[in-house]
Amino acid sequence: MKRIISLWLPTFATDRLNxxxxxxxxxxxxxxxxxxxxPLATVQKLNxxxxxxxxxxxxxxxxxxxxCSLADAKALFPELLIEKADYINDSKTLETLVRAFQRxxxxxAIDRNENNPLVSLIGSASIWIDITGCDHxxxxxxxLVKDLYNYCLRIGYQARIGLADxxxxxxxxxxxxxxxxxxxxxxxxxxxxxxxxxxxxxxxPTTTEKLHNLGLNQIGDVYNVPRAPLTSRFGLGLLQxxxxxxxxxxxxxSPYRSKPEYLVRISFPEPIGNKxxxxxxxxxxxxxxxxxxxxxxxxxxxxxxxxxxxDNTHMSIKTxxxxxxxxxxxxxxxxxxxxxxxxxxxxxxxxxxxxIETNKLTINQFSIDNGITxxxxxxxxxxxxxxxxxxxxxxxxxxxxxxxxxxxxxxxAVLAINSxxxxxxxxxxxxxxxxxxxxRPLELLSQPLPIDVIAxxxxxxxxxxxxxxxKYKVMNSEGPERIAPEWWRPRKFSSNSNTFAPKERDYYxxxxxxxxxxxxxxxxxxxxxxxTKWYLHGFFS
Length: 541
Known about the structure:
Elements: E1 4-9, H1 12-19, H2 21-26, E2 40-46, E3 49-55, H3 57-61, H4 70-76, E4 81-84, H5 87-100, E5 108-110, E6 125-130, H6 141-154, E7 160-164, H7 167-176, E8 181-183, H8 189-193, H9 205-213, H10 227-234, H11 236-246, E9 262-272, H12 275-295, E10 298-309, E11 314-325, H13 328-336, E12 348-360, H14 374-391, E13 397-401, E14 411-415, H15 426-434, E15 443-455, E16 462-467, E17 470-483, E18 505-512, E19 517-523, E20 533-540
Parallel strand pairs: 2-4, 7-8
Antiparallel strand pairs: 1-6, 1-7, 2-3, 5-6, 9-12, 10-11, 10-12, 13-14, 15-16, 15-20, 16-17, 17-18, 18-19, 19-20
Helix pairs in contact: 7-11, 10-11, 12-13
């Protein structure tokens, strides 16, 4: 016989904040004498209005309810503590709790049907624990449930617990029984649930309302109703929930499976503190971790090195790579400068190295013709990693081509560390670029600059141009190269201008009397426009 626990954390979102952020931010803790907490709520802007999504018990006592506007909540209690709903940290914490509750049973799972998968939208969370065959470890179910409840209190979470033969029955008693914990004896859920409200069947609001209109307000009211009329009126959903709660239909629970953890550690019989000792230990850990990654055909992209001191304090440093890597020497180099930030204090007794983010490490084969080798790509990735480590990830960018004929729109800048996420590359467009009659300048201005030009009429190249009040005599010229605008895009001169571009540009490569080379263009042509303008767009090396 299966025995299932439904662990309901009704104030999960606010409890998480209270045990972490709030205490540090507001210097407020639960009063030990009267066991009171300060009213707290989370908010989120919905349809242009900031609304309350989760409240703690203290806020409920002040009359503040979920779904009301922030303005109404502040009117009821102006001193209400407000925090923005944090779905990401709520989800991470919930996964951590699921792993922690595996101390009671390896078969634990997040209740994904708990009103909404985003726990912050309702403020609560629900976890399944299949304790079948595990109660003897705690000398019975009652003591197991008691230990579970006390454990939740110790880690800062209020809990309601239901235990029954089926997930549905356990879910119902955890929420609709006044007791903090309720145990339904085996094979007795039908009698125990008869007087529970019909909403305890986990039905949608529309079905619940229709049942109320028919006078079916309790679960026991539908026991003796013929099944055919119920199916005809409400579909199969109502009977399925009823059969699940009574154990007539199986309701499987998919156990939580955490992501594989790629972690290595080393403990020291005597504490260490010398920088060289730390580096030597890190090198050994990197070799060991890379062997683990190799067995799984993976490479690390984000690593965390944690240092645990003998005074029960710890610190950690992180480093990342642009491409998955399991090269110990390269990874050691990325950690090298950050090792200077480690404070050994009274000594280090444990070191842990963890690959937080990993990806498949594939070996690509390139042809001789395209001139690109696997080694060259690897060297570029290593260069990016080293520059990002020295200068900061935000300060190292890389340009990638964009399918556009307009020069200033033909590339975009991305963080070099994220370069593997960009599908296009210059090698894919090399043939396209080689087909241009004129080579592109090495230095391209982000926005073309206006110049004054004396040129042969009607369509000849410039003879002289003036830029920044300086005259430049043109000794040699090459062109024109005509570039038409892209009809499928908005035809604006630039992103910073509201002026629509003419239909074409005529580009010229110019060389002045000092041998310097420029890339200029005429916006429009004399056959279609009486007035044309010239612009400087780049410089050749």
